[in-house]
Amino acid sequence: MKLPHLLIPLPKLNIYLFFAALQRIKTKLIFLFMQLTLSQKIYGLCLLLLMFNGAGEYPIISLLIMSALTLEFWPRFTQLWHSLAGKAVLLFCYAVVANFALVNASGLINEITGVSAIHLTYSHNFAILLMLPLWILGFTLAILLLMQFIIPLYLIFLLLLKPFGIKATQLISSVRYPFTTGIVRMGLSMLLLSQLIIYFPDDFQKVARVFDDERVINEVIEEVIDEVDIHQSKTLPRHYEKFIGWSLREFIYQLEADSFSRCQIPEKSRVIELNDYEVLAISKQEKQYTYQVIKCLSPAIGQ
Questions:
Q1: What's the CA gap between 293 and 30, in Å, rounded?
Q2: Domain check: are 241 and 293 in the same one?
């Protein structure tokens, strides 16, 4: 006996239900997008760039990450500034950065001229202005590295409080989805830190010496730089160092040094008086500068 052939009807796809489901998904995505802050939207854009463009967009991604972190930190910074204790902490940080920039500028003047920076007041101040951005960037790198150890502990703290229904105060800013945002922020911050180390390895080592952790920092720098061309990694700092050296030499010769003095000035030279008996003679030949401490020969002192 032949069994009858059973026909199982295929479910018909309702095109209207399909578009209705797509519309609901679209509405939920738009609602979710509108709930995000500007910094969270920037983080999302960075993730998309990493997914579809990869390493070619690292400079743009780094700028976007810095912008997002600034937007999140700025409200906390202003809140801290409006309190007496916060002002004390921030002014202390500014004083530390300014002090190290002051010492670094003094050493740079001495390296160029061969005399103490105390005799070149205006050039010393100009060198401080040039070195201050590097030290601010270096301390920012150190704080950013420190945050990578604090944020995971804080995320674990949030997870421990969540079962008890306790909402902890946000470390950076009050946003929706703090745990997910914290993980994304931590990952992108590590990416930003690696890019900054690649472009400014020497400045990061200077800050490492301040915190007496140079060995660990050097290991991190070597691991990061090994992944890129070392000549490309130091292009930006070398250009800036050359700019600082050229600017200081021009400033000292054109503005700080005197064309006329009570002391006898060598031919085609300018001088800076060090004391009653010595002067710093500066001569320029093409783009080369020569610095020499000579005896002050004046009518009052005699030869």
A1: 72
A2: no
